[in-house]
Amino acid sequence: MGEWNTPREGGCRCGQVRLKISAAPLLTMACHCTGCQKMSASAFSLSAAIPAEGFSVTKGEPVIGGLHGSSRHYFCPHCMSWMFTRSEGLDFFVNLRPSMLDDPSGLAPFIETYTSERLPWAVTPAVHSFEQFPPFEAYEGLMKEYAVQGPG
User: Taking Cα atoms as reference points, which of 114, 123, 97, 125 lies closest to residue 32?
Assistant: First the structure.
């Protein structure tokens, strides 16, 4: 895998919630769905799938916001920065918003999802593009390919 130094630390915009990453990402993504556009107030959201055992909140207590369903979106209770997501049934990883890291370098999106809802001018350097989410069985191969290429 490409070089990715750990640990890395980060936090929300106001600094009341801090986190630590002690494992390399399994995959990096950009999601163009309209839900992510609205939650991020941007053209797409960015995610880095971090192994759950390599992720910790070190300061503060994030709160659940966004949709309150099987995916739990965690925000700083003060500045409301969208920090990370945990999905029910997929508890082996945490989807971190890479921009929350003090040093987010090396976390360009490897895949992009929901290109069917992409804004016409939104471009990413993703290696793989999917009109919606990739089929569940494709993730293993994508993670293996990402592990060889490494964070970019």
Answer: 114
| Cα separation, 142 vs 14, whole angstroms | 34
- Token representation of residue 150: 């490494």
All domains of the chain in start order, with CATH: 8-149 (3.90.1590.10)
Structure token digits, residue 67: 């949709």
Exposed, middle or buried: residue 47 (CB in 10 Å: 0-12, 13-18, 19+)? buried
Cβ–Cβ under 8 Å, residues 72 and 86: yes
What does the chain look like in DSSP terms, one character per residue?
A: -----S-EEEE-SSSSSEEEE-S--SEEEEE--HHHHHHHTSS-EEEEEEEGGGEEEEES--EEES--SSEEEEE-TTT--EEEEEETT-TTEEEE-GGGBS--TT---SEEE-GGG--TT-----SEE-SSSPPGGGHHHHHHHHHHH---
Each residue of 61-89: pLDDT tens digit?
999 988 777 789 999 999 999 999 999 88
pTM, 2 dp: 0.91
Q: Among 147, 141, 145, 152, which Cα is nearest to 1's? A: 147
Tell me the pLDDT band of 7, cut-offs 50, 70 and 90: very high
